[in-house]
Specification:
Structural class: alpha+beta
Shape: globular
Distance between the termini: 62 Å
Number of strands: 16
Radius of gyration: 21 Å
Order of helices and strands: EHEEHEEHHEEHEEHEHEHEEEEEHH
Bound molecules: 1,3-dihydroxyacetonephosphate, magnesium ion
Number of helices: 10
Strand content: 25-35%
Helix content: 25-40%
């Protein structure tokens, strides 16, 4: 049986009206280049989307994960789009996420985000791709826990025998570059202890415990950690397989109903609510460059190809009046968070901020700092 790989590779290589949205010509060039790769047989099917100022390439193929030809294709697309469109049109932050020129077979570590899932197709294989703008990979920690480990979210954990053996979470320590596999439900508390630290630990993969079948894959790049300085925000993607032995589509969407706070809003330096939106209508940002957004695209993966509602055009899973309620809550939280201005936790911890004037402020005040006589402070 042939195995199919779904690769989602994304980057911010420039946008219109600040960090708002890519230019249509950028998406058109990416589509043309993918269509050429389809002619050669490298790519089985593809879809190009945008969320905020990021462009995403969803590619199905039979080359497996971490494949040099697929990664090379995505890298060339982002380079060409930057050189042929973003730079000549003087789009904002042209080539923002292309941090290095040293492509040598793997796009990981060069800036673009990557999520890949290789699997043997079931009789019918629904797949959801989530993409977010103005946030970081740790934004998926809460929804992934709810989807695969919380029986109050996912009824299937209780009532579907195929889900009862639980799931294995692969957790990446993004600072130390280590990973660990944690099994739920037995080790749920250990998992939560790690993934609560969203800036450091993120879930990279989820497997069904019973047979180690891959269930989800997330992008894990932290641009600031790669670049050694603060650049654009990571704006992660996530692939989740649904139904028939996995959580149902509705169980996978449910955690987004109450928007949780994520890091990365405005100048990559603020916490804000993750607002679920239609990717056709509202995959843009506005209020205070946000609030952070998430879109959900649904397909069937059939014989190596993406099957949407019309060709490869996916189902727009947050395009439903139900989510107006969630969007309303997100707007209220966003406005509430802004009442705090630059005071934590509305503003991020200085180590997490994209911009920080703190060193300059400290330098300016250096001569005015006096040793305190207080007995209540720590001794260094
Ligand atoms: P500038 O510093 O280029 O104005 O960008 C601010 C911003 O939106 C980037 O995070
Ligand atoms: P991106 O990381 O999406 O480019 O946004 C930059 C930003 O911080 C805008 O306020
Ligand atoms: Mg940008
Ligand atoms: Mg972005």
């Amino acid at each position: 049986m042939v195995r199919t790989t779904v690769s989602v590779i994304k980057a911010d290589v420039g946008s219109v009206a600040g960090h708002y949205k890519p230019h249509q010509k950028m998406l058109d060039l990416a589509k043309r280049m993918l269509a050429e790769a389809q002619e050669t047989g490298l790519v089985k099917s593809f879809y190009v989307y945008s969320i905020g100022d990021d462009i995403g390439l969803v590619i199905t193929h039979h080359k497996g994960e971490e494949n040099a030809e697929i990664h090379g294709l995505a890298w060339n697309i982002f380079k060409e789009v930057t050189e042929k469109i973003s730079k000549p049109l003087k789009l904002y932050a042209a080539g923002q996420d292309l941090l290095s020129d040293a492509f040598s077979g793997n796009i990981r570590g060069l800036g673009p985000g990557v999520a890949e899932l290789e699997f043997e197709e079931r009789g019918s294989d629904p797949v959801i791709v989530f993409a977010a703008d103005k946030t970081e990979p740790g934004a998926w920690n809460l929804p992934l826990y709810k989807i695969f480990a919380d029986p109050f979210n996912t009824a299937g954990l209780v009532i579907d025998p195929r889900l009862r053996s639980g799931f294995i979470f692969e957790v990446l320590d993004m600072i130390e570059g280590k990973e660990v596999r944690i099994k739920t439900p037995e080790e749920s508390y250990d998992l939560l202890a790690l993934i609560g630290t969203t800036g450091r630990y993120c879930i990279s993969k989820v497997y069904r415990a019973e047979d180690n079948e891959p269930a989800a894959a997330a992008s894990t790049s932290r641009l600031s950690l790669i670049a050694g300085k603060y650049v654009g925000k990571d704006d992660p993607v996530l692939i989740v397989r649904a139904q028939a032995g996995f959580p149902a589509v509705g169980e996978i969407l449910a955690p987004f109903a109450i928007p949780h706070l994520v890091a990365g809003w405005m100048r990559g330096s603020h916490n804000g609510p993750l607002m679920p939106v239609s990717f056709r209508k509202h995959a843009v940002i506005s209020y205070f460059d946000g609030p952070p957004r998430v879109i959900a695209m649904g397909w069937q993966v059939s014989n190596g190809e993406l099957v949407g509602i019309d060709g490869t055009e996916p189902a727009d899973l947050f395009d439903d009046p139900f989510w107006d309620y969630s969007r309303n809550i997100a707007s209220q939280i966003a406005i509430y968070m802004r009442t705090m201005g630059e005071i934590m936790p509305a503003r991020l911890d200085p180590t997490e901020m994209e911009y920080t004037t703190l060193p300059q402020v400290l330098k300016k005040l250096e001569s005015r700092f006096r040793k305190t006589r207080s007995l209540e402070v720590g001794v260094p």
